[in-house]
């Protein structure tokens, strides 16, 4: 990993004008607004009317999760109709134009006020006409979100698809896959997936990762990366008209040289039968580390690796949407990264040797 410190600057013009940033910036604006709106209700209501559970009493899903995912799906249906979206909650599409008021819609890059509609982003060399997967976690760190802990975020990662005509399900292998939760079986049907009409995608998440964005209202921060162009942190959320205005940002380079001590981040499963083996490995996992952090959001953990706030990260049992954005952000900061697919071992480390050790141990 590079020894450079965080550098203050602005987003490069090539990054700022990138079509994937324009789309993901709009998605993060939608998610950011709804997380803040729902946060007011969650502060007063912690009941089944707003909050449900997935695999255990602490594995929470809120109405906010489903609504944000629905709006994202509805947005992509109009802006990138031939792409595949894989979402954690499997929520049906909701049209953002019908949902939001005109004032908010005018802040979106992809909204055309003259027609009152979302406009598909023009195809160019950097973004193919078809064949992209959008892996979305509407709220990564839902338990934190519900309890008023700041470490929660919207996450979207984009990769090229492995297209296969006539395939009727989603094949999941060790390098990629879909999941309905950290401890649940891989997705083998289309309940949580929007798919192109001419076929479907196999080995979901196994293609080349192109773009990642993590937006956290609680931490008032946005992290993003484009393959080959670096990783960046923006204070607050991306503003409107990003394609024409300078955006202050810091280029991320991982752990600065000379920083004392070593900190590892990880996470644990919600269910005891999965958590017990994780805890049993914790002593060996922490070899050569001074302390451990567990913030409850894999996306934010990986962004902290990119920032150099922690040295390394390792966790088993993630869904692809958990690391889709954060893994690329860490990778573009100079970290060595291994993506575990659904349920496998995912890690980001400051050396190739430590990456292999973490994967072997966890």
Automatic annotation (TrEMBL):
Keyword field: Hydrolase, Magnesium, Metal-binding
Q: Which reaction does it catalyse?
A: a myo-inositol phosphate + H2O = myo-inositol + phosphate
- Show the stretches that span the lipid bilayer: none
Protein name per Swiss-Prot or TrEMBL: inositol-phosphate phosphatase
Q: Which Pfam families match?
A: Inositol_P (PF00459)
Q: Which organism is it from?
A: Brevibacterium celere
Task: Name the GO terms of the biological process aspect.
Answer: inositol metabolic process; phosphatidylinositol phosphate biosynthetic process; signal transduction
Question: Which SUPFAM superfamilies does the UniProt record give?
Answer: Carbohydrate phosphatase (SSF56655)
Query: What's its EC?
Result: 3.1.3.25
Q: Which cofactor does it need?
A: Mg(2+)
Q: Does the keyword RNA-binding apply?
A: no
Q: Tell me if Magnesium is a UniProt keyword of this record.
A: yes
| Single Gene Ontology MF annotation | metal ion binding
InterPro entries xrefs: Inositol_monoP_metal-BS (IPR020583), Inositol_monophosphatase-like (IPR000760), Inositol_monophosphatase_CS (IPR020550)
Per UniProt, Mg(2+) binds at 88, 137, 139-140, 322
């Amino acid at each position: 990993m590079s020894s450079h410190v965080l550098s203050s600057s602005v987003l490069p013009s090539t990054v700022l004008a990138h079509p994937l940033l324009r789309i993901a910036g709009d998605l993060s604006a939608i998610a950011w607004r709804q997380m803040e709106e729902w946060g007011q209700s969650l502060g007063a209501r912690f009941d089944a009317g707003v909050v449900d559970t997935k695999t255990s009493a602490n594995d929470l899903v809120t109405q906010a999760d489903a609504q944000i995912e629905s709006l994202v799906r509805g947005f992509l249906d109009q802006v990138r109709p031939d792409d595949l979206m894989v979402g954690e909650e499997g929520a049906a599409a909701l049209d953002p134009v019908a949902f939001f008021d005109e004032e908010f819609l005018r802040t979106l890059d992809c909204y055309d006020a003259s027609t009152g509609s979302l406009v598909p982003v023009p195809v160019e060399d950097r973004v193919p006409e078809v064949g992209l997967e959008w892996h979305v976690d509407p709220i990564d760190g839902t338990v934190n979100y519900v309890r008023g802990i700041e470490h929660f975020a919207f996450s979207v990662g984009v990769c090229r698809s492995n297209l296969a005509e006539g395939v009727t399900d989603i094949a999941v292998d060790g390098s990629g896959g879909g999941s309905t939760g950290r401890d649940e079986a891989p997705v083998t049907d289309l309940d949580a997936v929007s798919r192109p009409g001419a076929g479907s995608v196999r080995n979901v998440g196994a293609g080349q990762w192109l773009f990642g964005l993590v937006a956290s209202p609680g931490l008032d921060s946005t992290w993003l990366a484009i393959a080959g162009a670096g990783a960046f942190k923006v204070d607050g959320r991306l503003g409107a008209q990003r394609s024409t205005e300078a955006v202050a940002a810091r280029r991320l380079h991982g752990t600065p040289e000379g920083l004392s001590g070593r900190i590892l981040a990880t996470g644990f499963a919600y269910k005891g039968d999965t958590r017990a083996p994780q805890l049993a490995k914790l002593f060996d996992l922490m070899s050569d580390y001074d302390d451990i952090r567990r913030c409850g959001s894999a996306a934010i953990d990986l962004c902290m690796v990119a920032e150099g706030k922690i040295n390394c990260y390792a966790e088993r049992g993630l869904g692809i949407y958990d690391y889709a954005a954060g893994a690329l952000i860490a990778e573009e900061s100079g970290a060595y990264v291994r993506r575990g697919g659904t349920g496998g071992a995912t890690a980001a480390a400051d050396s190739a040797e430590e990456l292999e050790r973490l994967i072997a141990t966890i």
